[in-house]
Automatic annotation (TrEMBL):
<dbReference type="InterPro" id="IPR001509">
    <property type="entry name" value="Epimerase_deHydtase"/>
</dbReference>
<dbReference type="Pfam" id="PF01370">
    <property type="entry name" value="Epimerase"/>
</dbReference>
<protein>
    <recommendedName>
        <fullName>NAD-dependent epimerase/dehydratase domain-containing protein</fullName>
    </recommendedName>
</protein>
<dbReference type="InterPro" id="IPR036291">
    <property type="entry name" value="NAD(P)-bd_dom_sf"/>
</dbReference>
<feature type="domain" description="NAD-dependent epimerase/dehydratase">
    <location>
        <begin position="6"/>
        <end position="242"/>
    </location>
</feature>
<comment type="similarity">
    <text>Belongs to the NAD(P)-dependent epimerase/dehydratase family.</text>
</comment>
Length: 316
């Protein structure tokens, strides 16, 4: 059993829960920070193998006290709001993004600078920080977000750099691109199309050709683990977690139709409405992560989609 104290924010989310499962498998007993109203279903089998802390990351005083008491060696910051609702500009959604992504992350950076045992802090940014481009983004590309979620992540990435420089905080930022895999929300594109195909419904796509860089969830978790090993030597840096491969939504849908033996179905182009703030083309360059994190994606897209199909069949 590891004596390393690990803190994970957003542990009940898609990425956070998968990372938690991996760390427990590796022999750790991580401290999990979750909102009081969080759905713990993704980590329900791990409750006895972890240390749960119910707290709102935006509650500064309570949060400071909790983080100080844990005094972690490693922080994985995955708490966030808006990744599934970035096109919504309602006051409630905007406030949730401000509270969690900006105020909550600021609280965590401020609390972390007083920790005596902290070795590395892995912050989570987003590919949405970049905006649109026909060319792959590198970490030196200028941010140009198309929606409020991306804008909030630009703030937290820059704040991480400021704390790295001014407070010597051992923090790096990972920018995951389009993550998919077993356990993702039903509303996500790949899961939606899989369920449509399994229900003999024609997959519905937007009129616009949407291009993404798809990263399988297990590969992303491996990137977090790899970052923990070298992050203290790379403080202030940002890393794209991506494949570098551009794939259109129609290519994804066609692949799913083949893998589910539903090639008789037809793609309904225009059946899904255009969304405000949508990013049209978003592909990354993974070379810096390969070089400095010693990380590369290992799951081919077709294999990852098949694993997702198998999981959905078992969890209808």
């Amino acid at each position: 059993m590891s004596n390393q104290r690990i803190l994970i924010t957003g542990a009940s989310g898609f990425i956070g829960s998968k990372l938690t499962h991996k760390l427990v498998k590796l022999g750790h007993t991580p401290h999990l920070l979750v909102r009081p109203q969080s759905d713990l279903t993704p980590i329900k089998t791990l409750v006895s193998k972890t240390k749960l802390h119910y707290i709102d990351i935006a509650d500064r005083e309570a949060f400071f006290a909790t983080v100080s008491t844990i005094n972690p060696h490693v922080i994985y910051h995955l708490a966030g709001s808006g990744v599934y609702s970035y096109t919504q500009l309602s006051p409630t959604n905007i406030q949730a993004i401000l509270d969690t992504n900006i105020q909550g992350t600021t609280n965590l950076f401020q609390a972390s600078k007083y920790l005596t045992s902290l070795k590395v802090f892995i912050n989570t940014g987003s590919s949405f920080e970049y905006g649109n481009s026909k060319h792959p983004f590198s970490e030196t590309s200028l941010p140009n977000p198309s929606n409020i979620y991306g804008a909030s992540k630009v703030y937290t990435t820059n704040l991480a750099k400021i704390f790295a420089i001014n407070e010597k905080l051992p923090v790096i930022t990972l920018r995951p691109f389009t993550v998919y895999g077993p356990g993702e929300k039903e509303s996500r594109f790949i899961s939606t199309v899989i369920r449509q195909c399994l229900s003999n419904l024609n997959p519905q796509l937007t009129k616009q050709t949407i291009i993404r860089d798809y990263v399988y969830i297990d590969d992303l978790v491996d990137a977090y683990i790899a970052s923990e090993k070298v992050g203290d030597k790379l403080s202030g840096n940002v890393f794209n977690i991506c494949t570098g491969i551009a794939t259109t939504t129609s290519e994804i849908a066609t692949t799913i139709m083949k893998l589910t033996n539903k090639e008789n179905l037809q793609l309904e182009i225009g059946g899904f409405p255009k969304r405000t703030g949508e990013v049209i083309s978003l592909v990354g360059n993974p070379e810096l992560s390969k070089k400095l994190l010693n990380w590369s994606p290992s799951t081919p897209l077709k294999e990852g989609i098949q694993k997702t199909i198998d999981w959905i069949k078992q969890h209808p």
